[in-house]
């Protein structure tokens, strides 16, 4: 561990990383954490891994989105958090919104035309709704005629579905694949 002004690190590195993520107003990158603490990025990554493992049986989760880390509550405790804060039970998403979110999550970044080509219907209103809810965001413009907007999921998307990262999405089965024989078996 590099020791500049922090000669008296009396806490384990993961405790310091945890405290910095807790007080940050936005998610932090490994580089930001390493600079703030004065240690290598490899040391921060190892501390983040230990933190993530320790949260498995607790009420918090370490969420990673686009290389940035933040603390969130575990999805299992959401009814208690909602009750404490007097929040309404989260509004349900329509079938069209869920379908569009799935397309964006697996194919991001993707244009509205790309979404519509997969869905087979106009998706203007559902994309606007998902943008307003903060579940998707604009990610730039495609290098195509007309330079259409590209869309991707947000950290709020991960929170809504109780995911720590997009890596936790189930594998995508292509529509033209035959279902496996085991999926047809019933107990």
From TrEMBL:
Keyword Signal: no
Protein's GO biological process: cell division; chromosome separation; DNA replication
Matching InterPro entries: ScpB_csome_segregation (IPR005234), WH-like_DNA-bd_sf (IPR036388), WH_DNA-bd_sf (IPR036390)
Keyword Aminoacyl-tRNA synthetase in record: no
Domain of life: Bacteria
Keywords of this entry: Cell cycle, Cell division, Chromosome partition, Cytoplasm
Gene Ontology, cellular component aspect: cytoplasm
Location within or outside the cell: Cytoplasm
Role played: Participates in chromosomal partition during cell division. May act via the formation of a condensin-like complex containing Smc and ScpA that pull DNA away from mid-cell into both cell halves.
PANTHER family the record matches: SEGREGATION AND CONDENSATION PROTEIN B
Subunit structure: Homodimer. Homodimerization may be required to stabilize the binding of ScpA to the Smc head domains. Component of a cohesin-like complex composed of ScpA, ScpB and the Smc homodimer, in which ScpA and ScpB bind to the head domain of Smc. The presence of the three proteins is required for the association of the complex with DNA.
Family of the protein in this entry: Belongs to the ScpB family.
Protein name as annotated: Segregation and condensation protein B
Species for this entry: Thermanaerothrix daxensis
Gene, per the UniProt record: scpB
